[in-house]
Amino acid sequence: MTAVASLLDELRAAREYTNGLLDHVPDGDWYRMPAEGVTHIAWQVGHLAWAELGLCLVRVCGMSPEEISLLPKHYGELFGKGSVPRTEDDRHPEPAELRAAADRVHAAALEAVSQLDDSVLDEPAGPPHLMFTSKREALRWCAHHELTHTGQIILLRRLLGHTARR
């Protein structure tokens, strides 16, 4: 198995796990923010879509943000790094649109990364980042980042009264 194929498997496995959890969250709970928390499921999913776009398509595959039309521009304000999850915002997408957006980005990322040769994986992955320097590390971080946020989704589900199981 090539290194690219192995990294693609990590990205797929992380998303499969996330989607299995989301399949059992009613739409009405996506923007509920428990008193114990500071976030909601919709922000987690929007953030994952925005981050995967930036990590895989921009940093690793070298696309410019302007040429990527997979997400509305305001998603950066709603879900990007440093954004603040809010329960009320007239720009908030419905859960089905958020999932579709995350699916579009994920499919595009898998397709773009699958075109890479293993020889480029040790090249720098854009500007400095605390968690990685190379394209290989950026792809691995993308999968780990997703699982970090999936853990938050699990906690939110529990706080909203859902069982821990998928």
Automatic annotation (TrEMBL):
A family per Pfam: DinB_2
DinB-like domain sequence ranges: 11-153
Cited InterPro entries: DinB-like (IPR024775), DinB/YfiT-like (IPR034660)
Highest rank taxon of the organism: Bacteria
Coiled coil residues, start to end: none
Protein's name according to its UniProt entry: DinB superfamily protein
